[in-house]
UniProtKB/TrEMBL annotation:
A Pfam family the protein falls into: LRR_8
SUPFAM superfamilies reported for this sequence: L domain-like
Protein name: Leucine-rich repeat-containing protein 57
GO cellular component: cytoplasm
Amino acid sequence: MGNSALKAHLETAQKTGVFQLTGKGLTEFPEDLQKLASNLRTIDLSNNKIELLPPLIGKFSFLKSLVLNNNKLTALPEELCKLKKLETLHLNGNHLRQLPSAFGQLSALKTLSLSGNQLRTVPTQLCGLRHLDVVDLSKNQIQNVPDTVGELQAIELNLNQNQISQISVQISHCPRLKVLRLEENCLELSMLPQSILSDSQISLLAVEGNLFEIKKLRELEGYDKYMERFTATKKKFA
């Protein structure tokens, strides 16, 4: 892509606060973007071939939305964690194995999508995020859900298409968790904490495609309590 095309995009972005350049075969984050560090609210560089997010990403202090789906990112810089206004972060279809240690400093984050990466566990850094609504960790390599998950503030947690065989009972203590998606994992019925049904806020539990028949779920203690919550909130999800 020529400089003139990039320049035109930069001029538009200066007016709109939105820089979108998708599917152009970019191999690196455009350094010229830092000229607009105080203008930009949204950056979308999806469907490119970007391997590294440079430390200068930390300069975009007004950024609300960063979308880098389907690139070749293997790691994220700690500087990303300086984005105090960031509300939406989409990193689906990359090669990420972990999150930066300071990720919990992204205090405004509401939506986090990490579907189709190489995470092996639910990142503990997510538990510090107080405004998190939706977390998508589907299509990773997660094998178990640790005790720290009990501190997660999310309303929806998507763990579909992982390799989960163990879930901490602490998941039923998540204060705001309403939707839990666990489809196509490796769960035995005995490994599903019954407290999810009997003693949690969860009103939509999706567990199709595991190592048990769905109808067996109905025999578990607490299923009636779960159905009460499901029925009560179904109207909202409709």
